[in-house]
Write a structure and sequence with these properties.
The complex is a heterodimer of chains A (about 375) and B (about 260). With about 375 residues, chain A is α+β, with helices and mostly antiparallel strands. Chain A contains 11 helices and 10 strands. Chain A has helices at about 10-35, 40-50, 65-80, 80-100, 105-115, 230-265, 280-305, 315-340, 340-345, 350-360, 365-380; strands at about 120-125, 140-145, 145-160, 165-170, 180-185, 195-200, 210-220, 225, 270, 275. In chain A, helix 4 packs antiparallel against helix 6 (about 230-265) and helix 6 (about 230-265) runs parallel beside helix 8. Chain B contains 6 helices and 11 strands. Chain B is globular. The chains are: A alpha+beta (about 375), B alpha/beta (about 260). The interface between A and B is medium-sized, with 13 and 14 residues.
Chain lengths: ~375, ~260
């Protein structure tokens, strides 16, 4: 039989993240959402408490957590504010290619100084002409002696305007499609790195999303991760690792929506009794609770699979896809439970719907997740 | 300076409390216990002193049953305490404050202790007796309601303030002594993630408390939750004048706040 109980260690990590989310993040969530402020003081505090570079081994100055521990923390943070969480965990995504594809020398040289102080990194894969179709990449990397010259533009990059380090995917040979893609670590300080405007977004407004342009940026060959042509596989293996915490992030949004709706239903009265006593609302709450519970368990299972040392492509795609759909549905039903008040910005539930929407799109749109799930599934029947 | 800080596990503030079926105690089955708020301030104070007085060490001591007592001691270690002593209470053992102070005093006596810090009271029973009883049992002076504690190394004295009914008093005291601290005036720190991980593996010394009479010194006869609050009254009005008139009438005739 599987064991769903958490260890005392996991419980104390979750409690610590919960406390941080509820005392440091949540009180500023509405204000940051309204004004699209990037609350750097909160991110700095998250770094100081060890909540930022969760996946980086302690040897390089990170927290060195497994996937399940990361998920427990991310769910709690997202309960406080999904947008802030996106910015807090963006380092995990940006640094994962270095963990997976970097040599010991590169990890020591790049990760150790990076993690020694508060810094942000960005994962630069998506381009204006396409996100999901990574093999159609236009950013070029031309070899010149011991260097590569990078030219191109990336968009929708989390934390890009604030990052000091980028992991960049570029093609050395477009004819080779995905086999022509290489990965590079590029510091913001390199000449020709031009972060662009901060996008105005529907949700996750405490997070920053922007473009970054590479104008003949010279990158030493020693900052290439793996061999030429390894980039696409590295990006996919990275997403295999980081997709599951997005399931956790979506679960955190869904749990917040359920908690708000349930508490409101006990207070709000219609027809002489709390709406929680009306069957229509009870059914809604029951369905929401099922969705939250299933999202959490699928996420835990995917994380457990990865912690067993397996790829977990199927499991993490199922978790991310299901949990993000669940988050949108549960946030929608929470608004419906609140009625007219739910549609008002003065109440906290409409933000959850806007935040939930992104989880269906980023780190692999759910259409791609379903393609992956079907491919993995059908393999078993062929 | 050898600092001993006494900590107590108490129900988390947002806990929904239920009375046990025998009506004499709280049902703690599903209750989450945390380090008491006053004790968090005591731990913070201990760590601030440790950081300012070279060669200092902090030992956290707690009396209580498993697993909650071990958890608050690990929380204290994660915050920065050097050692932890768990005075293990058997399930259902007396929680009378004097019995607790005796158990703590017996565990503290063999430890080096220049300064004993406690929260001035616990967040659950609010008895506020343990710190004073510890002073008595260990034969050292004790001070409660303390804030702004500092060590004057030159004169070898503690200086601090006490919030008293009559105002704020400024005090100084020699070591050893017991200090009961006010809550949250020193902005207690949050444990960092690596420290939490490390605290899970830290050793905790276990000691058995002296035997107490099975019944304890005191026991609750009956435990009742406060009656539910009655709802607020909304005054409906069209103009501010009307609202004021209605409010004055209610205050005079219903609430009888003034004649």
């Amino acid at each position: 039989m599987p064991d769903f109980s958490l260890t005392p260690e996991q419980t104390s990590l979750r409690d610590m993240a919960r406390k941080f989310a509820r005392t440091e993040m949540a009180p500023h969530a509405a204000e940051c959402d309204r004004t699209a402020r990037f609350p750097e003081e909160i991110y700095r505090k998250a770094y100081e408490l060890g909540l930022m570079n969760l996946n980086v081994p302690a040897d390089y100055g990170g927290s060195g957590l497994g996937s399940l521990e990361q998920c427990l923390i991310v769910e709690e943070l997202a309960y406080g504010c999904a947008g802030m969480t996106t910015s807090i965990i963006a380092n995990c995504l940006a640094l994962e290619p270095i963990l997976l594809g970097g040599s010991d020398e590169q990890k020591q040289r790049i990760l150790t100084p990076f993690c020694a102080e508060y810094q942000l990194a960005s994962f630069a894969l998506t381009e204006p002409s396409g996100g999901s179709d990574a093999a159609a990449m236009r950013t070029r990397a031309r070899r010149e002696g011991d260097e590569y010259i990078l030219d191109g533009e990336k968009c929708f990059i989390t934390n890009a305007p604030h990052a000091s380090l980028y992991t960049v995917f570029a093609t050395v040979d477009p004819d080779k499609k995905h086999r022509g893609i290489s990965a590079f670590v590029v510091p913001r300080s390199a000449k020709g790195v031009v972060p662009g405007k901060d996008e105005e977004k529907m949700g996750h407004r405490a997070s920053s999303t922007g473009t970054v342009r590479f104008e003949s940026v010279r990158v030493p060959a020693r900052d290439r991760l793996g061999a030429d042509g390894d980039g696409f596989s590295l990006a996919m293996r990275t997403l295999d690792q980081t997709r599951t915490p997005i399931g956790a992030l979506a679960t955190g949004i869904a749990q917040a929506a359920l908690d708000l709706a349930a508490a409101y239903s006990l207070k709000r009265e219609t027809f002489g009794k709390p709406i929680a006593e009306h069957g229509a609302i009870q059914i809604k709450l029951a369905n929401m609770a099922q969705a939250v519970h299933a999202a959490r368990l699928l996420t835990w299972h995917a994380a457990w699979t990865i912690d067993q040392g397996r790829k977990g492509t199927l499991e993490s795609s199922i978790a991310k896809c299901f949990a993000s759909d669940a988050a949108l549905h549960v946030a929608d039903e929470a608004i419906q439970t609140f009625g007219g008040y739910g549609y008002m910005k003065e109440y906290p539930v409409e933000k959850l719907l806007r935040d939930a929407k992104l989880t269906q799109i980023y780190e692999g749109a759910n259409e791609i997740q379903r393609t992956v799930i079907a491919r993995e599934l059908l393999r078993a029947y062929q | 300076m050898e600092i001993v800080v006494c900590v107590k596990p108490v129900p988390e503030a947002e806990t929904r409390l239920r009375v046990a079926s025998d009506g004499k105690r709280l049902d703690v089955e599903a209750v989450k216990f945390v380090l008491a708020g006053y004790d968090e301030s005591a731990v913070e104070q201990a760590l601030l002193l440790k950081e300012s007085v070279p060669g200092s060490a902090v030992t956290a001591v707690s009396y209580g049953p498993t697993p909650r007592t071990e958890e608050v001691l690990r929380a204290a270690i994660a915050l920065g305490c050097d050692r932890a002593v768990w005075v293990e209470a058997a399930a259902g053992a007396s929680d009378d404050p004097i019995d607790v102070a005796r158990a703590l005093a017996a565990a503290i006596r063999p430890l080096a202790h220049d300064l004993l810090l406690c929260g001035k009271q616990a967040g659950d029973d609010e008895a506020g007796l343990v710190a004073a009883a510890l002073g008595e049992l260990l034969g050292v002076p004790d001070f409660g309601y303390v804030t702004d504690l500092k060590w004057d190394a030159g004169r070898g004295r503690l200086t601090f303030r006490r919030s008293a009914e009559t105002g704020v008093e400024s005090w100084e005291a020699p070591l050893p002594c017991v200090i009961g601290l006010q809550q949250a005036w020193n902005d207690p720190r949050t444990a960092k993630l690596p420290a939490i991980l490390k605290s899970r593996k830290a050793p905790i010394a276990k000691v058995t408390p002296p035997a107490v009479a099975a019944a304890g010194r005191s026991a609750a006869e009956k435990f009742e939750l406060p009656p539910p609050r009655t709802g607020a009254k909304l005054i409906e009005y069209k103009t501010p004048d009307e609202a004021a008139q209605k409010l004055v009438r209610i205050l005079r005739e219903e609430a009888k706040v003034f004649p």
